[in-house]
Amino acid sequence: MRLTIRHFPLHRIAAAVLALSGGAIGTAQAQTESGAPAAGAIQDAGVVTVSARRRPENLQDVPVSVTAFGGDQLSKQGTPDITALALSIPNTTLKASRATNSTLTAFIRGVGQQDPLAGFEAGVGIYLDDIYLARPQAAVTDIYDVERIEVLRGPQGTLYGRNTIGGAVKYVTRKLGSKTDIRARVTLGDYSQREAVLTASTPISDAVRVGGSIARFKRDGYGRNLVTGAHNYDKDMTAARLSAEFTPTPELFIRLAGDATQDDSSPRNGHRVTVGRTSGAQILSNVYDTRANLARALGHEQEVKAHGWSALLEYTVSPQLSVKSVTAARRDKSYAPIDFDSLQMVDFEVPALYKNKQFSQEFQLTYTGDKVQGVAGVYYIDANAFNIFDTVLAGAFPSSTYTLGDIDTKAWAVFADANYKVSDALSFSLGGRYTADKREASVLRQIYLGLNGTPGMGTPNAVLFRTDTDFTHGELEREDKKFTPKVGLAYKASASQNIYASWARGFKGGGFDPRMNVLGTKISNATARAGFLPETIDTLELGLKSSYNNNRILTNIALFDSKYKDVQIPGSVEVDTNGDGRPDSFAGVTTNAGKAKIRGIELEASARVSNAFSVTGMVSHINAEYTQFLTSQLVGGVPALVNVASERYFQNTPKNSANLRATYDMALPMMGRGGTFSVSGNASYKDETSQFEYASVLDQPAYTLYDLSLTWTSADNKIRAGLHGKNLGDQRYRTGGYVFPNLGKEGVLTAFYGAPRTVSATLEYRF
């Protein structure tokens, strides 16, 4: 494997991280199960526990690339939501999807999915405890009431399912304690930020415990809508979680849980980076300001609602054998008014509605013996993803296009993963998963005259011009079956050196593009009914996990080489629907690009330099390139497939990333309570990032973010006060956008940005 890391501004960060381990890099960022802070975990690596292989294991022993963040650590750093974690995780991008506040776009090692429409799977699995969240809507949630968050990199299909070919992100919530516990957190910050979280739990008897959390997150916008006066990039979110735990016998544990989230934030509208083509509208000076005029979808304000429930049963048959059942159901509904052109006039508007629901059942059998440890089980999911939207488009042929996508998915799987200890030093692992994935879809696309919308979106008298696509359930149907194996070796060279090698195959099922335009893109009904194919990835990984100086330094290094086949590329293209030679609409075209190779290196480290001073850091590099990317082009007047791989890029996958955090703790009595005052500074670097598979002016150049946190924690851990500054350099960096230069009268070149410099103060009290 040949890797070349080019020079970048944070080369000194890389050198500092390398120096921590003499060349072997890693990190152990976690919290003990009892809630102890991560700093203590660095001194005693044995208490850093993760469940990456669906069973509790020491972070430094598990042969998987995983980074864990403890709840106490996230609190001390003032981490706002899951997207902020990507700054310190190798080869990982987590962000709010374009034009949304709480839909998640996730990429790990080049694999992910940007478009959250029905029919497209994420590629990075999101889990709430053991529950797979099938859709990305409402997945960008503020962090509260968590024990830890784990991020697993590389294919995790054996234990986590068909759509974790890039990796998995796991929220692990706290189990309820044996004593009454009440905690409150209040945050105030600029942009009128005000937040409050209240968490409480108590035992009712020796066998019953109940608890819950309620949270309110509110903030004004970073910018304004200059047309309506509304905030842009604001936050208005409410969340709650309830749980009850039962231990009727020492062998049986039952947990019932429910959660709900409502996001009433204003629509997130983009910033035009070009002058209006016909209106001459100038580029606004504040990238968070907008002139968008669309504020409602289906006559409804922007709103996202999500809720779910789960039932967990764990029964210990013997000290070696246990069984688990996880039953869960979830629903979400999003009204999303999207103004593509971000101008006052009606030019390119897309009011949309997304609805998702799922039911899942999983049974697991876990065995932990002296020589053999493993997990086996069965899994079933029944899910529906539904979206409707209008495309209101001005131009030579003013029209409103109604698009409906209704996708049913039923999938089941059987899986097993076992580890055999050949000796105290050498162990061998073998796993596999067989998945059957069945999908049915309805797709309807109709064009109506004028710019007033369609009957399906609230305009009953609209005049139908033409139906381009009309498939009902039964006409679009496919079933994909796949066996995904995994093999691995681990060798404990010494008590502090763990070497591992693994090979794993990942699989993501095929499907149907819910925006397909059979007439406009001139695809046959047979091709449309076939849909797009599954994609697979084969990854070889070599890793070294080490500890030094009585576990005061923990290091990880991983090298990986992936072969990616039938890569699913959903995209939107301009189309001519009336035959006048000019594009007057757009449609979805999802292709299986062909082949790609992805190679990279990930280096992480965490060191307790002294009792007061600790440092963590990471450096990562990835070479992700297409080797085959076939598109249909006219060659000599005849349609032909042309390989344009040299002109295509991996989106949301910067070649180089780095992070360095230094923390200094000192004893500082305050209010007679004693305690610890901590200063924590953080620098994060991301290389140039492509927003699409092709070069674009919206691509983000390399940038660096700086954070600083000052916290005081009382000696009895009852009080914590913090002051947190994020993006102190006030860097403007693009996270997504839309490019349709020929549609509408004005053309579309619109960008979305990450948060500017923010400062907040937090006070936590544990009663």
Q: What is the secondary structure topology, with strand pairs?
A:
Elements: H1 11-21, H2 38-43, E1 49-50, E2 57-58, E3 66-70, H3 71-77, E4 92-96, E5 104-108, E6 111-113, E7 124-128, E8 131-133, E9 146-153, H4 157-160, E10 167-173, E11 181-189, E12 193-203, E13 208-219, E14 223-224, E15 231-232, E16 235-249, E17 252-263, E18 271-272, E19 296-297, E20 300-301, E21 303-316, E22 321-339, E23 348-368, E24 372-393, E25 399-421, E26 426-449, E27 464-494, E28 497-508, H5 525-530, E29 535-548, E30 553-565, E31 568-575, E32 585-592, E33 594-608, E34 613-635, E35 638-643, E36 656-667, E37 676-686, E38 703-713, E39 719-726, E40 734-740, E41 748-753, E42 758-766
Parallel strand pairs: 7-10
Antiparallel strand pairs: 1-2, 3-9, 4-5, 5-6, 7-8, 9-10, 11-12, 11-42, 12-13, 13-16, 14-15, 16-17, 17-21, 18-41, 19-20, 21-22, 22-23, 23-24, 24-25, 25-26, 26-27, 27-28, 28-29, 29-30, 30-33, 31-32, 33-34, 34-35, 34-36, 36-37, 37-38, 38-39, 39-42, 40-41
Main location: membrane
InterPro entries: Beta-barrel_TonB, Beta-barrel_TonB_sf, Plug_dom, TonB-dep_rcpt-like, TonB_rcpt_CS
Motif (TonB C-terminal box): 750-767
Biggest sheet character: 22 strands, antiparallel, barrel
Question: How many DSSP-defined strands?
Answer: 42
- Using only C-alpha atoms, the radius of gyration works out to 26 Å
What class would the helix/strand composition place it in? mainly beta
Helix content: under 10%
Q: Helix count?
A: 5
Q: Report the principal-axis shape.
A: globular
Query: N- to C-terminal separation?
Result: 55 Å
Classify the beta-strand content into a percent band. Answer: over 45%
User: Quick check: average pLDDT?
Assistant: 89
Extract low-pLDDT stretches.
Answer: 1-47
Subcellular location: Cell outer membrane
InterPro entries: Beta-barrel_TonB, Beta-barrel_TonB_sf, Plug_dom, TonB-dep_rcpt-like, TonB_rcpt_CS
Domain TonB-dependent receptor-like beta-barrel: 272-728
Domain TonB-dependent receptor plug: 59-168
